[in-house]
């Protein structure tokens, strides 16, 4: 119960990695606000499962690219739980196209949700961490932020330029913010998942042939599961990682190890 009675907000908690993080946080003793955009039923179901197991959780709708909606989401979380100790800025989407066909609309939407959405969520969390009383009995840090990045914060990705740009942006937003708020004892880190079995990348694992091709990029020889990422998030949110800030934890089965060079290049 390393997150006992801490209050957490997970954006995009209705699906995939965010759903697994919400469940793992609850199992670790946290109260969890589960944000969704369109997946109301899924978010409500996760919240109700957590409550049925004796935990505290509720689902909350917000488009993370909407400033007012993010402010309202954080205010509601604080109203319900009394405070905010942990933010997981996880919401993200892809709108893929060859660069020459990439529309301004799809460029903007991906940057708005993946990067601006994390900026707005992080800013709201930092403001709340600084406004509330410290609770050293709950957490050594005054507050913790985990940004959900991607291996594509460092691996270029043709055909997904908007997505890779958003994740590269998250890398330096996270590090710059971590530098700025470390004196306030707010820890800010990222998780960079490799290929995790969720709806966002279904095309990459749903057929045997696609999975075989994907596995050539993963030295560890298996696709990741949302729980692999959730366990890392629990650690990064807990006092176990109290001296860790401004870093990206790659949870990728070795995808960033240049597997093409494994056999003498
Ligand atoms: P997913 O599609 O299952 O989940 C994405 C979540 O983001 C959903 O809950 C969705 O409702 C939410 N979302 C989308 N637009 C939103 C908006 N405007 N406002 C609020 N929420 C919104 O995919 P996932 O794989 O669980 O992705 C979660 C995060 O992990 C994303 O940031 C993604 O880029 C990142 N990631 C995933 C993988 C992977 O292999 N699955 C790899 C690297 C990074």
Automatic annotation (TrEMBL):
InterPro entries: NAD(P)-bd_dom_sf, Sc_DH/Rdtase_CS, SDR_fam
Keywords associated with the record: Oxidoreductase
Protein name: Glucose 1-dehydrogenase
PROSITE patterns in the record: ADH_SHORT
CDD domains: GlcDH_SDR_c
Gene3D superfamilies documented for this protein: NAD(P)-binding Rossmann-like Domain
MF GO annotations: oxidoreductase activity
PANTHER family xref list: OXIDOREDUCTASE, SHORT-CHAIN DEHYDROGENASE/REDUCTASE FAMILY (AFU_ORTHOLOGUE AFUA_5G02870), SHORT-CHAIN DEHYDROGENASE_REDUCTASE FAMILY PROTEIN
Family statement: Belongs to the short-chain dehydrogenases/reductases (SDR) family.
Taxonomic source organism: Microvirga lotononidis
Short name of any one Pfam family annotated for the protein: adh_short_C2
């Amino acid at each position: 119960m390393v997150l006992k009675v801490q209050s957490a907000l997970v954006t995009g908690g209705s699906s995939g990695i965010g759903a697994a993080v919400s469940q793992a946080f609850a199992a670790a003793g946290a109260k969890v606000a589960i944000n969704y955009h369109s997946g109301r039923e899924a978010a409500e179901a996760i919240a109700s499962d957590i409550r049925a197991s004796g935990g505290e959780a509720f689902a909350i709708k917000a488009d993370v690219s909407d400033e007012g909606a993010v402010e309202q989401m954080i205010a509601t979380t604080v109203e319900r739980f009394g405070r905010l100790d942990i933010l997981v800025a996880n919401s993200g989407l892809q709108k893929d196209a060859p660069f020459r066909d990439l529309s301004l609309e799809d460029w903007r939407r991906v940057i708005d949700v993946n990067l601006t959405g994390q900026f707005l969520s992080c800013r709201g969390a930092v403001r709340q961490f600084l406004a509330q009383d410290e609770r050293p009995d709950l957490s050594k840090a005054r507050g913790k932020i985990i940004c959900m990045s991607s291996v594509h914060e460092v691996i270029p990705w043709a055909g997904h330029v908007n997505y890779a740009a958003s994740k590269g942006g998250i890398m330096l937003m996270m590090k710059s913010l971590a530098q700025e708020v470390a004196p306030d004892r707010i820890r800010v880190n990222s998780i960079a998942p490799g290929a995790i079995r969720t709806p966002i990348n279904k095309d990459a694992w749903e057929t045997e042939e696609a999975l075989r091709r994907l596995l050539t990029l993963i030295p560890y020889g298996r696709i990741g599961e949302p729980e692999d990422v959730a366990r890392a998030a629990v650690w990064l949110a807990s006092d176990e990682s109290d001296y860790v800030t401004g870093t990206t934890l790659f949870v990728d089965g070795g995808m960033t190890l240049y597997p093409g060079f494994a056999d003498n290049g």
